Amino acid sequence: MATLVTPTDKGEKVDKKSPPVTDEKLDRKPRPRVDEKFKIFCGTANPQLADEVCQFLGMQRGQAQVTRFADGEAYVQIQENVRGADVFVMQPTCRPVDGHLMELLLMIDALKRASARRITAVIPYFGYARQDRKDKPRSPISSKLVADLLTTAGAHRALIVDLHTPQLQGFFNIPVDHLFASPVLVDYFKKLNLPDLTVVSPDAGGVERARFFAKKMDAALAIVDKRRVEMNVAEVTRG
């Protein structure tokens, strides 16, 4: 009867040949990060920013079609599988504010209907933030409406940079991560070593932020007395 000998049989030794040692180093190219549970999408507001973030993270931007019909309606289609994924949608609501906001809402809704596990709206510039109160009779609180629209569309979380006022976070019924660009700007201006530096607040509402800059950079502080006469028109009083 024949007997099959395997390396696991006791008493048997198997000679293993090691690969030849060379001084040549393998040319390894960095491969993009592949994580099917973590994706980043963007609209047409600032795709360059989204690409830079994806490049920093070593991953590819999510594939999505964002176009418009002849009558101006926005159309969004997610072109890859996002089921169970943690998705971030980067879309500042800059000019044209309404068009970019609608793209953001449609993309969030499309991701929700595609069974994404969690959707985070990343908004570097939050439009309608200055319309945060009723300053005249029969006027809307537009920033509250936009916050409700994001929640209704399906966003689970919002990440916003430098809100007009921190109190705007209370308009949201979802968690809000409020980030500040001031540490980056302070570090930049410190490296310039500008002589006789003065930090100017454009109005009374920006005094707290300007005071923070002045304190961090050991600079003087100035405040502009500005009065808003009408929409897009302001008067500045000189002392």
Short description:
This protein is of the alpha/beta class and 239 residues long. It is built from five helices and eleven strands; from the N terminus they run βαβββαβαββαβαβββ.
Characteristics of this structure?
239 residues; 2 domains; Rossmann fold; alpha/beta; 5 helices
Q: How many DSSP E strands?
A: 11
**Runs with pLDDT <50, length 5+?**
1-12
What is the H/E order? EHEEEHEHEEHEHEEE
Seen as an oligomer or otherwise, the chain set is single chain
What is the beta-strand fraction? Answer: 15-25%
What best-fitting shape do the alpha-carbon axes yield? globular
CATH-assigned fold name of the largest domain: Rossmann fold
Q: Evaluate the radius of gyration.
A: 27 Å
The end-to-end distance, rounded to whole angstroms, is 111 Å
CATH class of the largest domain: Alpha Beta
Individual helix count: 5
Roughly how much helix do the residues carry, as a percent range? 25-40%
Structural class by SSE content? alpha/beta
Number of domains: 2
Assigned CATH architecture of the largest domain: 3-Layer(aba) Sandwich
* Biggest sheet layout: 5 strands, parallel
Summed over residues and divided by their number, the pLDDT gives a mean of 86
- Reading side by side through the largest sheet, how are the strands ordered? 1-4-5-6-7
Question: What's the arrangement of secondary structure elements?
Answer:
Elements: E1 38-42, H1 47-57, E2 64-68, E3 74-78, E4 86-90, H2 97-113, E5 118-123, H3 142-153, E6 157-161, E7 176-179, H4 182-192, E8 198-201, H5 207-217, E9 220-223, E10 225-230, E11 233-237
Parallel strand pairs: 1-4, 4-5, 5-6, 6-7, 8-9
Antiparallel strand pairs: 2-3, 10-11
Helix pairs in contact: 4-5
